[in-house]
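Input sequence (208 aa), recorded before submission:
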Amino acid sequence: MSQVDSIVVIGAGTMGSGIAYAAAASGISATVVDVSEKALERARGYHGKTAGRSVEKGRLLEADATSLLGRIAYEGDLAKACTGRGFVIEAASERVDLKKSLFEATKPSNIVYDDTPIHVYMGRIHTELLEKGRLSFSDLFSPGMHKSTLVGIFLATLELVRHYSVRVEQNDLFREIWILPNLDGAEPVDFSNVDNYEHSSSGEPEQA
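Predicted structure, token format:
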């Protein structure tokens, strides 16, 4: 997959705004698209406040904050925003009809995805936790990891915390997040029997 230097984020809500800000903070130009001008203004305000707080707390230089905000654009016209852009992220309302219409409007020609079931990631994380005693959240991810793989690992971690003998700790805001067994310990689990997950031997992103 070629290097991504610009993206379009459809939806100026909490999720879309956050994705756009994270992209801009990583040096990627992001265009936020929404039919609501008010939603776009809220997103713009959120971005400005977030960057401002980072400057106040010394996490970001003022010049860098200005550059970051300069990488975010706001657009009400989907077709215009998508022109010449090869990477589009949909973060709109959870309505199937809307998602289908957006899919048709953007006409993606190249979809890259990771079809590894979440239970596979759960098993890998849990096994490594039993072996090492604790894991840092950041160690679960590697540079260049495909975004769908990243999402799969993140969801697997959430499932482990919700339903199995796993807990997380963070000593301070913005510090490392540690994944630990519960105080009563963690036992091996056969995650292939987890409800709603199917068997698969795939472990790498596939390209359609």
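Checked by second reader. The helical segments are 14-25, 37-56, 62-70, 78-82, 96-106, 118-132, 147-163.
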